[in-house]
Amino acid sequence: MFFGSMPALITPFANGKVDEAGFKSFVEWQIGEGSNGLVPCGTTGESPTLSHEEHMRVTEMCIEVANGRVPVIAGAGSNSTDEAIRLATHAKKAGADAALVVTPYYNKPTQAGLYAHYKAIHDAADIPIIIYNIPGRSIVDMTVETMAELAKLPNIVGAKDSTQDLARPIDTRLAIGDDFCIMSGEDGTAIPLLAAGGHGCISVTANIAPRMCSDMQKAWRTGDLKTCMELQDILTPLHNAIFCETSPGPIKYAASLLGKCAPDARLPIVAISEESKATVRNAMVQVGLLN
Prior knowledge:
The chain is of the alpha/beta class. It contains twelve helices and nine strands.
């Protein structure tokens, strides 16, 4: 069972190419700061604008640096089923612990199409699969009923829930059972999702505040609700700030202020505005990440 704080890793760039040394150093820092797992090549990692070769290389580097110390859930989603199969198969071969597979965007499949998509990946890739349900970006929303049918397949092991519907994880748990791993995909719902029976958060904020995000999750698991709620209150303005524009623009700028990477994202994501930069910087000062 995956649990706790798992950063949806940024992909650093240098001169337009993947900054391999920067990425490896960033992964090492994340582990040292207490992250409970790593998620490369997701939305925050700019998977839509990584080439297949870059995508696979980033996954391989993450697994290599992690070296079994924490689990790696490799982003392997696509709106092409064949492409998702190739990425999930590669994740398995590279040694990932699971594949994170987003609901197909743009195509707008029916629930039957969603089921067929995931079943095809399941049958071909032989790796545990986390369903990534993010209707805000994918347009389609997987129903609890469809997810419950998919959960009957042995390698469909959990979901990253980015619906922001706080009844959804409860309904999902009741329909599937407690052994289905439910992770929040929205930092603002990390603690409410735990209260609904979830297991952790695949976090954007953890890119820049890994220790606090990990400590907050640990406080919940150990029953220290006072500390957990204090950390939630401290982190909430930061969560809001790093989504002041389309992610990952703000989080990459925030990471650049910590010296972890350049602020560059790939088009069509552009540099955030000066007003947004001030918002991000002020939030980081407020939570103690910057002086």
